[in-house]
Amino acid sequence: MYNQIIQTNKIVIHHICTQNSIRFDVLRFDEIDAVVSGNKFFKLKLYLENVLAQNATTIATFGGAYSNHIVATAFVCKKLGLKSIGIIRGEEPKKLSHTLVDAMNYGMHLIFTERSYYRNKKAIQEKYQSNNWFWINEGGYGIAGANGAAEMYNWIDDSYTHILLAAGTGTMMAGFIKAAKKHQQIIGVNVMKGNENLINEVEFLLTDEEKKKNYILLNDYHFGGYAKPSKELFNFMNKVWDTYKLPTDFVYNSKTIFACFDLMKKNYFSPQSKILAIQCGGLQGNLSLNKNILHF
Length: 296
Ligand SMILES: *Cc1c(COP(=O)(O)O)cnc(C)c1O
Prior knowledge:
By secondary structure, the protein is α/β, with parallel strands linked by helices. The protein is 34% helix and 20% strand. The structure holds pyridoxal-5'-phosphate (PLP).
């Protein structure tokens, strides 16, 4: 299914710097496709295989008005000849977001739900049960989502000692923990504020054996919270672009890269460590910012 959807030849290692014999690289999943950049296709992949194997015709999933997951689901469904339904958080707005317009253009049928009702996903699924839709959780959260994300590990070689990534639902992080080798530590960067429960959601997707692996979730690099604009973060993103020609988005990847530099500064990594940060797309999120804020 890879070649049908993404360009795997665009997945490359970008060397950032070597300091005190610590090497810092970034693995670029951002250019594999304009719509399903980053981890979104990988998280969907095993669900899609199940759907095709069952000869189901329709996928239904959940998300907000700016959800990368919603537009990615609409896009891959169109490519695979499947119908898609998006249960959208909140009442229908007068003007649809770019994300939702794109999703509709890929053929997704949108169902707007009032916020309090949206929270009760079980009731929503029961309401449409007779339609025989195949349901995927918000953000692709689930074991199949994590196992799909674990396939991203095929591009990571054993020489890396630490792998850093952003965590939203924690699905990708769970997948990376599953795939990690004994000598490797997975470092998740929680992009939300006050969501310390996230580690439990990650661990819910792990076996008892996998829970013994080496991983940590950092809760102090949220820069004010999910998708909150931050001048400090924008300045950092511009510096990273000007110095290393690495583009980042302000919701996820910039926080990962910041955490990397900060941990280096604090001597978290021992000499000879080899660090890999995952750039997992989502750059179109920057389109919601004023034009003159970023240098790229
Ligand atoms: C969705 C997304 C994430 C978060 O992935 P989860 O599996 O939900 O933790 C991280 N980075 C980018 C760019 C994303 O689009």
